[in-house]
Amino acid sequence: MRVFLTGATGYVGSAVLDAFVRAGHRVTALVRHSSASSDAPLRPGVEPVVGDLSNPASYVVAAASCDTLVHAAFESSPRAASVDRVAVEALMDVAARVTAAGRRVTVVYTSSASVLGNTRGRVADEAAAPQPPAGLSWRPAHEMAVLEGARRGGFRAIVVRPGIVYGGAQGAVGELVQASANGLIRVIGDGSNRWPSIYDRDLAELYVRLAAHPDAEGVFHATDHADERVDDIVDAIARHARTRPDVRHVPQTEARQKLGPYADAVALDQVVRSARARALGWSPSLHSITGNVARLLEEFRSAQAAA
Q1: 122: Cα within 13 Å, side-chain hemisphere
Q2: Is the C-alpha dihedral spanning 267, 268, 269, 274 positive or negative?
Q3: What is the pLDDT along the chain (307 residues), one digit of tens a residue?
Q4: For the chain, which domains are there?
Q5: Paired strand residues for 165
Q6: Which among 83, 111, 148, 290 could disulfide-bond with 75, CB atoms 3.0 to 4.6 Å apart, if both were Cys?
């Protein structure tokens, strides 16, 4: 399989890249101009293409030669929604044109379980209606654009909604590990909210499985079903620290002033299930954060050392 991948040097995208390469697929990886010399994934099976998400002309030709187009990049600036929409429209156009020419293309769009909002005691599966926090209010429309575009253009469309991703040195859990090492962990809210989490390598394996499964279409959640409360995760990390860190609970309004929409996303209380992914035979290898802290700390140190 030939795979076009955005976000190949990012947290989720780098894990997805590794998974496709391990599975023997060829990956064309979009990298930014600023990272082309140092962060480009130069290795067998990977062809870097220098470009910018907001400039489709820099990557649509490369994308058109591939069978699966995976959008795993996330623009963290205030332009997030507009840049993402440009990329979505460009990849859909490529997929529709190539499919019309006789080779059906698959588009995989990376969303987030955060679009489901607070589940408030409900269990949210793939049929649940999105109720996103304000900072992600644009995301469901992009999901729907991909799904509707596939119906019109004949290509195959998949939307992946990962939970809180853990593993390595990045992401919300990586930030907690770093904060623990620094001696102070700040928790947004009272810490009783539950995170729908997923190990980065398990998430990446789901992308490979979905791309390879010809009947996989629509929305797929990716969570480990542990439903762990943030205070329990923080306590497990703190217990492994050389010196137990202080823990401060920060009001969400205060955190929002400093962190913007990210504060609302990590403060959500969610119970999310991945029924459709598991029906395809996918099953996470790790089933909780708290039960794997020693392993995650070792991964964190290794990732930092390699950076």
Answers
A1: 14
A2: negative
A3: 999 999 999 999 999 999 999 999 999 999 986 544 445 566 788 999 999 999 999 999 999 999 999 999 988 788 999 999 999 999 999 999 999 999 999 999 999 999 999 998 899 999 999 999 988 999 999 999 999 999 999 999 999 999 999 999 999 999 999 999 999 999 999 999 999 999 999 999 999 999 999 999 999 999 999 999 999 999 999 999 999 999 999 999 999 999 888 899 999 999 999 999 999 999 999 999 999 999 999 999 999 998 7
A4: 2-167+195-224+271-284 (3.40.50.720)
A5: 198
A6: 83
Supply 73's token pair.
Answer: 């990049």
